[in-house]
Amino acid sequence: MTNIHVWSAQETHIEDMKICKQPRTEVAKQAKTRMVVESLVDQLLATRLISNQRLFEQILYNKDIIWIQNEEFNGHLFARAEIAENLKTKTNSFMMYMPTNPIVYEVDGELYHLITRIDSTRSKPNLERFSVEPKPVLSAARVNDLLCSIVMRFYETYLEDLSRIAQDNKLISLVEREYKHFLQAVKELNDYHLNWHPRGNGHELLLQLIDNLQLLKSRPGKVLTDFSNSHSYAVVEPSYRPFKDIRQNVWAL
């Protein structure tokens, strides 16, 4: 008698990518611009609303978010630890990453450094950058662009993935409205003569807009409130549904 292991397609085990932050102690004596990016990345990981695989592909290792390049090496918001020290600017060789105190994440057993040189350029967030062919950044990332790009791609990925599995369109509609309101609010900020330096009022107002986004503070099962005239609500769902590996033993002669 032969023991045959059988499993159907809907029972196939889908194992998500593992991303975990390595312990570290911040040595900076004052707040650095990169800390707001680090905080946002950690916040998105904590939501568990999109799979880690999609988070990695769409944000953490995506040229549309940020792409750094020198003569020999490429890097993204995450760069492999083995090449992080080699990513320097062409102009002054200032380290793009901080090997003495790196912000390190383990991705399926491989170590990656989060970009740590975030430019202080007085730059408004560019909401059209996704429609532009990405070009390598040779000096540093503009922080307001970077923050908006991360938030925008998170919403777009969540909505795209959720639309495939959602049973309740009310959640999709609510998230779409919150995303639309965020984009409109950023456009309105851009119309004012604000100081977009990381210590300026434009940057601070952008951080407040991001902090007010309900979805970024959510977990599966949390209730989102629609603050428009309808005052409806919806329960947050993850945008992916991994299945368990259920194997059936079939005995045959």
Structure described in brief:
The protein has 253 residues and is an alpha+beta fold. 33% of the residues lie in helices and 15% in strands.
Structure description:
It is a single chain. The protein is globular, with a radius of gyration of 21 Å. The N terminus and C terminus are likely disordered. The chain is an alpha+beta fold. It contains six helices and twelve strands. Helix 2 runs antiparallel to helix 4. Helix content is 33%, strand content 15%. The strands form five sheets. Strands 2-6-7-5 form a four-stranded antiparallel β-sheet. A hairpin with a 2-residue loop joins strand 6 and strand 7.
Number of strands: 12
Question: Structural class of the helices, strands and pairings?
Answer: alpha+beta
| Percentage of residues in helical conformation | 25-40%
Strand content is 15-25%
Q: How would a textbook summarize the main sheet?
A: 4 strands, antiparallel
First and last CA, distance: 5 Å
Write out the strand line-up for the largest beta sheet, numbering strands in chain order.
Answer: 2-6-7-5
**Helix count, per DSSP?**
6
| Sequence stretches where pLDDT stays below 50 over 5 or more residues | 1-13, 243-253
Nearest-angstrom radius of gyration? Answer: 21 Å
The average pLDDT value, as a whole number, equals 83
State the oligomer.
single chain
Order of helices and strands: EEHHEEEHEEEEHHHEEE
**Gross morphology:** globular
What is the topological layout?
Layout: E1 2-6, E2 19-21, H1 33-47, H2 52-60, E3 68-69, E4 74-75, E5 78-80, H3 81-84, E6 104-107, E7 110-114, E8 118-119, E9 141-142, H4 143-165, H5 169-190, H6 201-211, E10 223-225, E11 233-235, E12 248-252
Parallel strand pairs: 8-9
Antiparallel strand pairs: 1-12, 2-6, 3-4, 5-7, 6-7, 10-11
Helix pairs in contact: 1-4, 2-4, 4-5, 5-6
